[in-house]
Amino acid sequence: MREGWNRPPVMKPDGEGELLEVAMGPHHPSTHGVFRMDVALDGERVIRLKPVFGYLHRNHEKIAEGMSYLGSMPFTDRLDYLCPLTNNWAYALAVEKLTGQEVPERAEYLRVILGELTRVQNHASSIGFLIQEMGASGTPLMYAFKAREKILDLFEELTGARMMCNYMRFGGCRVDASAAWLDATRKVVAGLPGFVDEFERLLRTNEILMARTQGVGILRPELAVNAGVTGPMLRASGVNYDIRKVGGYGVYNRFKFRVPLGDHWDVYDRYMIRMLEMRESIKILEQALKDIPGGPVMDAKAKLRGFRPKPGEAYGRIESPKGELGFYLISDGGPNPYRYRVRPPSLINLTILEDMCLGQNVADVVLIFGSVDIILGEVDR
Amino acid sequence: MAVDEGLKIELGKQGVFVTTIEELYNWGRRSSIWPMQFGLACCAIEMIATTMARYDLARFGAEVFRPSPRQADLMIISGTVTKKMAPQVVRLYNQMAEPRYVIAMGACAISGGPFKQGYNVLKGIDRYIPVDVHIPGCPPRPEALLQAFMTLQKKIDGQPLTGPDRPRFLDAEAQGEFPVPVQGEHDLEPTSNPGVWTVPVVIR
Question: Is residue B173 situated within a structural domain?
Answer without folding.
Answer: no
